[in-house]
Amino acid sequence: MPSRVLIADDHALFRAGIRVMLSSRPDIEVVGEADDGEEAVELCRKTRPDLVMMDLGMPKMDGIAATRAIKSEFPRTIVLVLTAFADEDLLLEAVRAGAAGYVIKDAVGPIELLDAVNGVLNGESQVDQDLVMNLVRRLADETEPRTKPTALEHAVPEGSLTEREIEVLRLLPLGRTNREIAAELHLSLSTVKKRLERIISKLGVSDRTQAAVRAVELGLIDGGR
User: pLDDT-based confidence at 154, cuts 50/70/90?
Assistant: First the structure.
């Protein structure tokens, strides 16, 4: 079954280019396009995509507010941010809102963009994962562990993450890829992928970035410091 992708960007030509590129893949289905944040949220309700490619600078509702709204209703939906430049403060807000990673529009070609889409859909690293996880560490510096997470946050019962899953989780804020985690922990790549899938499921999130964010918020890890 193909992965369902929604494109949210206020530039029609840019949306069309992404749609054509993604539609060339039999394992991806573009289920909608939005030209502002409000429409992106509404289309998520109608189409339930697996992934939203989200521009940050849109009218009516910006990409950060739209990401926050989408993640509050559909926590398992992945949001990949599209941005014109890597402003760390802006990207920190996007990660805090629920984004899995980002792509700089003018800095990547079709192959890199497809790699980023495949990466987030398959639980792998995104473009410049080191910067994304640096944002998670910044978030850890600003965040007090939550003792009473909201219902939307799927609080993790004490002991539900195994010691081996915690080992993998602690490496995420360090920017490790699945292959690097496998080498460091002397595991097979398939074992790492399975553990990450279980971690993401248990934490009630959509991707490795938000798994790291959630773990920091719950006090399960310290952000890799």
Answer: very low
